Design the sequence.
């Protein structure tokens, strides 16, 4: 059974998957991979229900409490993994997160657009302000933040502290703190603890509650440079999401400096399962002028290139597949 499990991990890695999803219904097991091009179900007859049972054991779940939600972690095929298990009345679901291990990525590797990489280089040298990153799972937000934090620490000698759930890219160049809600380390408590470390740069992955959002803005107001991720589709949606989390418009106007929205796609013609498959990361960046215009008018400024415009332009140029662009931004 170990051999089958390791084969599944290697398959997921080859397809650049960030997660493996399991759904057990009766005597059947569905397995899907969260790949750069979306959630793709495996058509297979090799992996059976016994594989899911073995995975629970390997991830350290309490096998006497399988009627309750649990999470566990472990290493498989040289990959650090985190497993979340959720039982329901007629089914079981599980998600295995595959942690990234490549700490060598640099900002210049994030995009072929020099304007984007130059903007990220400037972020790496900042010591004040608030910048948010948005995008779905698998869009490369964690990788982008890691590259910025690494450069801030190693190049600019800034003290960087990151609060993560879980820690996906372990890196000794800056301090990483993992959320542990069972032992009282929530995002809210974690932000308070980060402040006591006297950091130059604070990174929060990700902001989910009104209290965490409020502490995020407090950290920026007290003179730190704050980077964070938040659940939204683009810059405009991010501003509305902040309002939903109870952040007042005046505070957004004063404290928020930029929102980066991104998507990650296989390069056109590179949809195979090779480890060397190329990917294209596309970014929408709104800064203070666009933020103020969106708050005043509710729409992007005239002539501004929205994320969907950038994605469809990449499809027209042949950089990404048109079907990927249409999947995310139908026209």
Sequence:
């Amino acid at each position: 059974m170990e051999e089958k499990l390791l084969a599944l991990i290697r398959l997921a890695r080859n397809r650049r998957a960030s997660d493996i999803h399991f759904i057990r219904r009766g005597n059947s097991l569905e397995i899907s991979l969260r790949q750069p091009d979306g959630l793709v179900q495996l058509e297979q007859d090799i992996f059976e229900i016994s594989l899911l049972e073995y995975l629970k054991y390997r991830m350290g779940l309490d096998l006497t409490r399988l009627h309750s939600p649990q999470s566990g972690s472990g290493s498989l095929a040289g990959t650090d993994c985190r497993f979340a298990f959720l039982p329901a009345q007629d089914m079981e679901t599980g998600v295995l997160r595959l942690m990234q291990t490549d700490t060598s990525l640099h900002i210049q590797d994030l995009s072929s657009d020099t304007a984007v990489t130059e903007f990220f280089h400037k972020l790496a040298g900042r010591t004040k302000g608030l910048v948010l990153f948005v995008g779905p799972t698998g869009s490369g937000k964690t990788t982008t933040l890691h590259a910025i934090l690494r450069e801030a620490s190693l190049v600019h000698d800034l003290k960087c502290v990151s609060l993560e759930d879980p820690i996906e890219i372990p890196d000794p160049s800056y301090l990483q703190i993992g959320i542990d809600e069972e032992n009282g380390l929530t995002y809210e408590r974690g932000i308070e603890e980060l402040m006591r470390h006297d950091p130059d740069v604070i990174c929060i992955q990700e902001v989910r509650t009104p209290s965490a959002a409020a502490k995020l803005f407090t950290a920026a107001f007290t003179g730190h440079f704050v980077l964070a991720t938040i659940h939204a589709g683009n810059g405009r949606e991010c501003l509305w999401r902040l309002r939903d989390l109870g952040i007042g418009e005046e505070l957004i106007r004063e404290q928020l400096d930029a929102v980066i929205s991104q998507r990650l796609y296989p390069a056109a013609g590179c949809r195979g399962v090779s480890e060397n498959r190329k990917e294209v990361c596309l970014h929408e960046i709104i800064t203070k002028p666009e933020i103020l215009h969106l708050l005043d008018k509710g729409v992007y400024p005239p002539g501004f290139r929205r994320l969907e415009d950038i994605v469809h332009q990449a499809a027209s140029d042949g950089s990404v597949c048109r079907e990927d662009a249409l999947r995310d931004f139908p026209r």
Remarks:
- Residues 141-154 form the longest helix (14 residues).
- Residues 33 and 292 are 39 Å apart (CA to CA).
